[in-house]
Amino acid sequence: MPDRVVHEPTTKVYTASDYKSNVKPIWCPGCGDFGVLSSFYKALADLGIPPEQAVIASGIGCSGRFPAFVEAYGFHGVHGRALPLATGIKMANPSLYVCAVGGDGDAFSIGGGHVPHAARRNIDITYIVMDNQIYGLTKGQPSPTSPLGMEKKASPYGSIEAPLNPILMALAYNASFVARGFSAKPKEVVELMKMALLHKGFAFLQIISPCVTFNDTYEHFKQITLPLPADHDVTDRSRAMTLALDEQNMYLGVFYKVERPSYVTSVRAVRSKASGGAQFDLEKIIARYRT
Amino acid sequence: MYDLKLYESIDENTWCPGCGDFGILAAVKQALAQLELAPHEVMFFSGIGCGSKLPHYLKANGYDSLHGRGIPVATGFHLVNPELKVIQVSGDGDSYGIGGNHFVNAARRNVDIVHIVENNQIYALTKGQYSPTSEKGMITTTTPEGAIEVATNPLAMALAAGATFIARGFANDPKYLANLIARGIMHKGYALIDVLQPCITYNKINTKEWYRMRIYRVEDEQGYDPADKEWAFRKALEWGEKIPVGVIYEVSLPTYEEQVAVLKQGPLYRQPLHGPTMAEDFEKTKREFM
Amino acid sequence: MTKAADKTMAPAVTRDVTLRIGGESGEGIVTTGEVLARIAAYAGLEVYTLRTIPAEIKGGHVMFQMRVGSEPVHSEGDALDILLAFNQEAYDKHHRELRAGGILIYDNNELTPPAIAGEIQYALPLTSLAKGIDFFRGKNIVAIGALVKIFGLPYDKAKAVVERQLGRRGADLLAKNLQALEVGYTYAEQNITKEAPYNLGVPEGERGADHRLVMSGNQALAIGALAAGCTFYAGYPITPASDIMEFLAAELPKVGGTLIQAEDEMAALGMAMGASYAGARAMTATSGPGLDLMIELLGHASMTETPVVIVDVQRAGPSTGMPTKTSQGDLFLAVYGGHDDFPRLVVAPLSVEDCFYAAVDAFNLAEKYQMPVIILSDFALSNRVETIPSFDMSRVQRVQRLLWTASGDGDNSYRRYRVTESGISPMSLPGMVGGSYTAEGLEHDETGAPGYDPELHTTMMEKRFRKVRTAADEIRTWPHAIWRYGHPEPEVGIVGWGSTAGPAREAIDRALADGMKVAAFFPRFLSPLPEAELSAFVAPLKAVIVPELNYRGQLADIIQGRFCMQIHRLNKFTGQAFTAGEIYRKIAAVYSEWVVPTSA
Description:
With about 290 residues, chain A is of the alpha/beta class. Chain A is built from ten helices and eight strands.
């Protein structure tokens, strides 16, 4: 089946409200995810992506509910498997803008095994991880990005597991686009999302998105976040890792961006190599087995 | 130094003659003998694959788990009985593919186990499909036009995840590997030893000659600093014409087991089931509901 | 079965011979069998093969067995007529199964077996013959040459097979192989004086036009998938399903399709579901341990009403089990696996040929009824190479999913999960204007929005399961939905599934010849089970036998649960397939106890 171009280019101008579905978000007032959502509407509108050409796959969690609030195609999947779903969707119809979204637990606990492979495939999707350093939907257990010593019901003596560093992991996994945003700085998040959506390859975008109910860290992150140094070379992977390792400063912006052939491009090359231009003929395959 | 014969197993070995795993097996036995660890003092965990049969081929305690699930079992085990040295051994598919998530989280937790990965850059037991560490462009049974993905970088992954001991060895240098394994066992915390291992049957590219031409001992280099994370990242990203072997990163941090409060009273399996305070605790809890 | 050898005239063409080859892994035992099987096939005979391979990569014992006949063959063969032993181990392991009066062919450079009264022995110095042409590796081809002469197979066909099977590895090697073939043939011609009691040659005039194929179950299934229009495959290596993936890795790109080897089985099914959601015809293939990992996503596919095909090539468990042995142990998993109740369809091919049509059916059912469909194959079926009739392409149609079109709904919001009489709702594809929805694993209303009302849940559960009833109504009209065989008015019935059909058929033939009134009822679709038809079948029977390759009798449990009837179970869980004899003996035993003999 050839790649389908689903629609002719349109001259229609989109606004953010074109992407608002009629499902009311179930998030607590003040949740960081609202900021992520409205930035997402704006990013799609600015890029003029027709709603029917956007697909969002998600996992389980408060962030997992994201697709239903966007007037686009969505797939609310099982916990941790948003990346495989998104990969399949993109391969079946590469003309779509495919995003995967999830929280820090969905992405780095149960879903953690899929991230390195999406990165090394360089599958052309945008992965937005709404990181609140907690399991919110299940009411407040520590997550893989929670700080050491966090005291919650499931860790009454303080968590003894050091947190994972999503930016550092994404760089180690060799993702071709790695960036961090903060939901309380929506204008910047819009720009990061646009870059991620336009990036031809796997775009990893961590957005600090505090949970007002179980882990309100707005003030903390307002203190420690700051933009990446202006002279940072986004093609310098080592430097990006060094900046990501910085415990005192939480940098925002694009850490790393390089161009590499996307998975779709590579598969297309495989297809032309395999067929050598010939028409597919099932009879020829069956003939190999004739007596 | 114990006699190597102590670790001989009666199980029939089914590896292809010339397999790199023989070197790894020899190195493991050598390390145990060097450290004077008796067979009953060591616990091996493995998954599925040619390399995962290693626990059968030496005399020690062993547990062959499901594909990719050695580490969770090893973690639970060591929390209950930290007196045995725990060694997880399996291949690159088992450790970095299906088991990849467990690998990352073991590093993060700094559980006090050794993780030896028999990295032959192929799926051998299932006869020749590509693996997470197969190089881009490698032609295998499922990638007849060449693998599209770039290889995963386990050292960089472990480093990013917070591992406190990271080393790489070579199966055809068993003496050197034995020292790395011994250091990994002595290290307090999660120790990764990624072992370059030729598969003579299914990987005709990354042969022992191919490795020999490229590996160099990282401690021989100027500016060797295994406590420096940034230096370690640079070494981790080095692959191709030059491949560093040796200890690339080593720091000392509290292990997971050291931070579990109840284990301060001793290993869980030794703690009495019905302690003196149990009746009191129960009364207290009961009263919350009255 | 055969007349004693008569030196003055060629023995009659044999109807049915079972030959087993044994030797060390790495010495080309499987190649020997595959080549011989194809020589027989090209000569116009029917073949049925099986092999056991060691679990290790190098070394260990290998056995290849082929049953050859002038009529189609349906099971392994109860006893060996011919044993070809390449080494002492092969003799030690298999000789006891060689029937009295059978033939032993052996490499007399490797072993010296004792003479046994009635046993015909042919000594072949395979090792030294091969070394003599400086081709030690070719001793298996030498053996083939000798067998071709001994059993009267056509030499020209032998050469053709060697060229076709072994020609791809270079002209030099091919020349060596052909030389080995000739050396073996010549040796037999000049040195073997005893006439073989079997003659596998079919006289020229009798060879009809040949429209047969020689292939394995996995190959038939993979080709069926291509015929069905599969465009996306994601999978993970696992014995014995890996070769489906490898076959499609080479072929799918040629149809503009995609194959991804995923990082684990959960990723594999997830990718297939995503691809299907976006419009591709998608599948994955695995074995028991992999299906275990996929069960959560299976439920999700059913809940989101996403078409997807999942192949389970069953192998012996439990857990890691015996990866290179066969079993029918995953019926419960396929039919019931998953928390709470959700619909899925399960189809179990009965033979290698069936694997092709099962794949086509599975894709069509998945697309039409928008749910996961599991194909239950097994190790024996997947691996055995068999002669089968060529595929009837007139039976191959591609049924598309019910696609939504913009004018359909009438109101503003598209209702993806619209409640309909059949249960099937029109499905949009990403890219269609106005068709946006979120596929939802939570219980949901018609638009896909999450909802937990008691009435809503009741309505949606019924809607989803209504699709199964609609599917059952359609399947009931398919002539091939149930395989029935045997006496039109049976007293004893055999109800079973999957590859047990072959040995069951031969067992019934023997029983009928003995005057017993026995018949078989093998549904190809196990979910939904054709209860009305099954009920009608068992009603007049005095006894029902359910033979299965599993420990507890999973189909027997299901039937017993539905019909509250007594079942005579025949459970084999050794990792081997049934022989016709095993099933025949059970029929005879049950018959003699439960069937009141009618007068005269």
